[in-house]
Every structure is written in C-alpha cells, then in structure tokens.
Design brief:
This protein is of the alpha+beta class. Helix content is 35%, strand content 19%. Strands 6-7-8-9-17-13-12-11-15 form a 9-stranded antiparallel β-sheet. Helix 9 (366-379) runs antiparallel to helix 10 and helix 9 runs parallel beside helix 20 (693-708). The longest helix has 20 residues, at 472-491. The radius of gyration is 28 Å and the shape is globular.
Length: 728
Amino acid sequence: MIQRKRRAPRSIASFCRLVTASVASAAPPGGIGVTALALLATLALPAALSAQDAPGGPGAIPTWTKASKDGVGTSVTPQSKVWFTLEGGILTEVYYPRVDQADVKSLEFVVSDGTHVWIESRDMRHAIERIDDHALLFRQISTGPAGRFSITKTYATDPRTNTLLVDVTFSGPPGDALYVLYHPALKNSGYGDTGSTRDGALVASKEDVASALVASGSFTESSSGFQDVNDGYTDLLVHHRITWKYTKADSGNVVQVARIAQPRHFTLALGFGATPEAALTSARSSLGRGFAAVRADYAHGWATYLKGLRTVAAPYEKEFQLAAMVVRAHEDKTYPGAIVASLSIPWGYSVQSNEPNAVGYHLVWARDLYEAATSLMVAGDSATARRSLHWLLDVQQKSDGSFPQNSWLDGKPHWTSQQMDEQSYPLILAWQLGVTDHDTWEKHLRPEAEYVMAHGPATQQERWEEVGGYSPSTIAAEIAGLVCASAIARSNGAADDAQRYLATADDWASHVETWMVTKTGHLGAGLGPGGYYMRIDNNQNPDDGYVLDVHNGGGKWDERDVVDQGFLELVRLGIRPADNPVVERSLKVIDRTIRVETPNGPDFRRYNHDGYGETYFGGPWQGEGVGRLWPIFAGERGEYEVALGADPTPYLQAMLHFANDGGMIPEQVWDRAKPTYGDFTFGQGTGSATPLVWSMAQFMRLAVDASEKRIVEQPTVVARHFLGTGGG
C-alpha cells in the first residue's frame, strides 16, 4: 500500500524535539531565532491543536491482538450480531455483523494521577471470573500496583440490538482520572478507519460499518488520533492527560481516547451499525435499557438454551455446559449453521492487519464444522447441527459436489487445496441427522459421493493441511462417508449407486494396512512383526523410505519415521475394532514418540517433527516453529479408551485442566517445563488459538461418550457393516 510508505513522527512531542534539535544545530551562536521559537511554541501548545483533524496519518502498521482468549460471548438471539473476546484483562477483537468480520482491536482503560499513568494491558495485574455457570458472562478485574486501584468490568451483548455493554466499577484515590482507549479496526483491517467525536460519542466508520462508544456518565474530553503518532496512548504517556484534542482522524490506524466524567460506576455502550447514526442509535438504545436489564435478558437466553441439553458426570458438567455455549456462540447469525473455527487470530499480535486478508481462524472448515456439529448433536442440540449441515450443502458446497479447504461465511473459498476428509464428513453428518430426503440426495449428497469416488482415496492435503498422499484419518472419513452414502442411496431407490459406493468402501478398507502400515519403520523397534501406521504415505508403498517434507519448517524425514494418532479415526468411525493388533502396536509407537506427560495430564503432538507452533524460545509462529501439544488428541485417545471398554478419565481430566481461568480450552498447550520469554506454563495454553471450537467440541463428545460408555457419534451403519455392531 502507498500509505505504508509515509513516514510520520511517532508523536507530536517527538516531532517537537526533532525540530528543536534541527533548528538548534542550524542556529547562529547565541541561540534559536524568534521565528523558530514561535514555531516550536505553536507545535507544543495543545490549544493550538484543538478542533483540528489529526495530522500524520495513517499511523503505525496495525496488528491484531493475542489469540489466547480468556472469554468469548454473544447473545443467543439472531437480532444481536455482535461477538466479543476477552484477553489479558481487556476487551480484544469484537465482531460485527458476521462472525468472520472483526471490527475492534481493543478497548482498555488508563489511570492517571497527573504524574504517572498506568495502562491496563501493560501495567496492571489481571484476573477473570465466570459469574454465571449458565451464561457466557465474564468479569475482568484489573489491579494497580500495590493495590492502589482496581477496575472491574462485566460484559453482555444486548439481545435486542447490535450493542456490547460493559459495566465498570473503578476504585482508587479520588484524584485519579480514568480514561478509555478504544482502538477500532473495522472490516477486518486496522487501516482506513475514520474516527471522530460526535454528540458526545466516539464514532468510527469505514464504508458500510460504523461503531459508536458512549458512556452513561458521559465523556468530559476526547480525541481521535493515529497510532504511535498522536493517539491517546502516546498523549497520556507523554503528558499524563489529554492534550491533543483532535476532533477527527481521517482514514488510518485510528485510536480514540476519552476521559470518563463519573468513573466510580458507569456503563460503556459500544454500538454498531451500517452508518454512524445507526451505531449511535444502537448504543444509546442499549444504554437506555440499562446494564442490569440487558444482562438479565442475555443470561436468560443462555440458560434457556442449556435446558435443552443433556447432562454428563458431575465433575464435567460445568465445563460441558460452557463448551456447548462456546461452540454455539461461534455460529453466525446472517448465515445460520456456519460455525467458525475460532474467534481468534493465532499469534495475532504479530499478524499485520493493514489489509483485510489476515483472517486467522474466523473462517469455516468443513472438518471443524463436522466436529462442532457432532458435539452439539450428542449434547442434544440437533437443531444447530442440522443448520450446520444445511449451510454446508446450501452455501459452501461447490457445483461439482466438493467442498473448499475453508471459506468465508458466504461460501467464498479462502484457501483452495483439496482435503478429502472434508469431502466426506457431510455425508456422515447427513446420515447421522437423518437428512436423507430425495431432494437433498439428488442435489447434494450424490454429487458429493461421486466426487469422493472420483478423487479418493489419496488426498492433496490431509487433516493438518500440509502434505498429500494416503492418510489413515482421511481414508477413514472417506470409507465411512461412502458407507453412509450407500445407505442413503438405497433409501432413495438408487440401488446401483449404493452397490458402487459400498464396494469402493470395502476395497479401500481392505487396503488400509497395505497402503499405510510400515513394517520396516525405525520407530517399531522391539514391537515385533506387523508394523505400525504412518502419518501419511505418498504412493501406497509404506516401506520405500520416501523422504517426506512435513512443511512449516519441520524438515524432511523418512516417511516411515513420521507418525500421528490419526489412525484412531478408523476405530472412532467403526471401521476397525479397538483391539486391532496394528492399532494397539501403533499406539505403543505413539506413546513413546509424541506423548508428553504434563502437570495437567497426558497429551500428544500432532506428529513428530511438527513445525506449527511457537519457536524454540517461545516466539510467535511465523512460518516455522515447534509443534506443541493439542488437547484434541487427549480427547481422541479418550474416545479410543471408551471404544476399548477402558477408563477414559485420565484424558477427560487432562482436557478439563487444559482450560484456562475462563474455561476456554486451547488449540495447543505448552510442552515443556523450561520457561521462555513468552512466559508459557507447562501444560497450559500457548499463543496459537484459544478457544478452539474443535477442542471444546472434543471435550463435549468425550464427556458424553464417557457417560454412555460408547462412542455416541459413531455412525451405526458403518460399525454394523465392518464390525457387526452399532455405535449409536
């Protein structure tokens, strides 16, 4: 972008110092000339800058925030199209009007005593509390040094309109001033926003999206500036109060600041709309209702939702209900059924937001959506699961019957690789939900099945989106998908199709071991004959020693020596019994290769040599790193133990304890005791993505399976065909 080439001074104060030094170096002996002094005085006077547009745009290159969210929330109602996230004691990304569009980077507070300032995200201690087990209600508490002050914030979106309310209590010395710093980033980008003060509100806009921030006790003064040039952060750090009172900052990386008139107890309303006027109307409407009324309405909606769900064992019920709400909260309201992978951008603080293409995980993967839908289905929320299936078929599915690697909510593909498990999961989900009518069969399920027949069993990418070939987890999904397609075809009178699909499923199932089990791999030493499952094979010859590039900076390795736990999908989906000798032998390889015992319980890496994770010293992943532990694998192993008739408790407990203080289960957890500058804790979340919908969904499924002592989401038609038994 041309804008990025513009070089603006970091702040007016630094600019003044620069001009002073330049003039002084050129001045004659005896001092600086009168004209130069007058110029400097003008630049330094805040009054001279009042009622002006902020200069120096567009400001610093913007980024997103940390992905390790402590809480997320939204109303259950379709009328309120606002989602919020919390991290590190402050409000982070807020989404509107769709769950794939972030519009806020952050909102936080600053305390000043006139001599010192304390910025909430930087200078205070933080805690988070869940204040209602039956709603996505969170309270953040930020505390100043030596307990000098505290800021307590509770969040709720208004179920009736597009507003987020924040109830705030400030406790500190009477002379301390409280400021709010609001950093919009409209339409998935931190550039191009215009901020201003209008009718006592901080208003930001870009194209057809606007936000408006108002306070119940009003603002006494405010300003809109450009980040690192003349924004509120810089002004307060330099002057300890607002001195740069700009009425408008036009088209840039805008930060807005305001002083709270009555800081002891007040409510902030952050409204959104297609225009500034609409955003203001929304904010003031919610503010007029009052926080207590909005909170009660918000909580009632979630409590009503939970009443429709089943229960699980008491130790897991609280987290189970939270997980169900979190998964459900990731569903969009313009495109019902579309559930994004996470309301986060992995390592977002290192991801530039100068253009609206750094989307993180707020996209839809058919695989992740299947995981979410099956978790809700077994929990008792089949209605949302059906919406997800219909979204997959009506919105995301392409004309040839296939599904993109991932997509925006309107179905537009983002990444474009082919992943054959994603081509198969909707078939399984349709059978599980009983959506097998003739119209759905002809328009959607038959084209999908034909695509799997024509393009399987090899895949361009397996479930970790990195390499191609013959993957146990992918082929398990394909086989199960074709068996389900066969049953659906038969119910629709398509006997020939049913026979073809089942014959192909049987053929692929008969070759699983010959295609993907190595008998010469070095990791099987001491385990006897029979071999073990590889992560992936490039060519149906698992013993040829092909050199596999695992990508993400993980290096190149003999494919026989790269393993993952994906073969357990053969058990979960009912294709192989849990006591299959190759499965049992492969688990021994897994346990001595990628299993790690953490203080919170056992967990596993995606595969050995994985490069998707923080760097060795804990820095953000930016193309290469070290793959850490994933809670979903504790869940997958737990489901295997259920299938085996063993006790899944160690894995269920591990998943429970991997959750952070807000109950969010992460994508990855730190894998070693050695500290890093990233300050990660062994067995707790990293900077990748928290919460991950798949993690929350996997916990739900395992909790249900443990209670039922069976794999509830296992497609019965598959288990009966291959094992002679039914799973549910």
